[in-house]
Design goal:
By secondary structure, this protein is an alpha/beta fold. The chain is built from twelve helices and 13 strands.
Length: 318
Amino acid sequence: MNPLVSVIIPTFNRARVVGRAIDSVLRQTYPCVEVIVVDDGSADDTAEVLQAYGRAIVYVRQDNAGPSAARNRGVRESTGELVAFLDSDDAWLTTKLERQVALLQRASEQVPCCLCNTLMRTPDAKEESSFGIAWLEMREPEGLWLNPAAVLATRFVLFCQAALIRRPFLLQCGGFDERLRLMEDHDLALRLALRGPWAFVREPLAVWSGGDKLSLSAAAMQQPAQLYQSIEYIDRKVLEHEEIPDDSIRKYLEWDLRRARRRLWAERLGASGHVLPRLGAWGITGWDQLQRAWFRRSRSYPRPETAPLVSSCGVAQG
């Protein structure tokens, strides 16, 4: 029997593109899908665009509260055993849900989610994969990813558009942290990764479009203090409140926390306006970049450990 998949699409002032995201879900080859679109207080023609879909979607409108709150609202309105998220300016290939559901059905119920690769497409026609950007070299085309927590403790992997999550694990994690406006998807992914291995698909089954998100990313990089405040908050929260199954994961998180605090210190020095503090900030930032580059090339840097997924009873090692 096919489990119901709830697809949550939060949107804000994207009347021009939200239809593409919805259509990519409605064209899925997997038959049991409910689509919940949460209009997060849009002031454009989003309501008219969504109402035209009639009963094909569940339309929810709320006052503007941010993407995390919109996604959580969608989860509360949903009923599926499995939950997926899609940003309103992105899209899926038609077989995305079918392949991910099949993998989770073969996997143990202790596997929290399935992650697929994503094609990253920018307005200047450049294309990269999310796995490539995150240095995820998966040996098998699909299977079980045994150490997602160790990897996610050291870098960001595109998550929201690419994940299919078992509802009990999503609820156990408490959903998205609505206090975060940056890195909220990394925060949820890290907490899910602490709860068990993930299924994965190496092939890109989602398409991430740059557009507005590139401008948001650029704004975040222009105000790195906010970015590192988010990282510091996430690492500290996980270290203090989550059960961490392995000492190596704790060490990676502690290293990342120290790095975030160093960068915040550098930002404060750089904002002072005086020459010596600004030189100190430049030195801290440069040293941090060199240290991270060295870490990526060291044996300590966690690479994905994978295994073929053969049945719900286990995996074939090697």
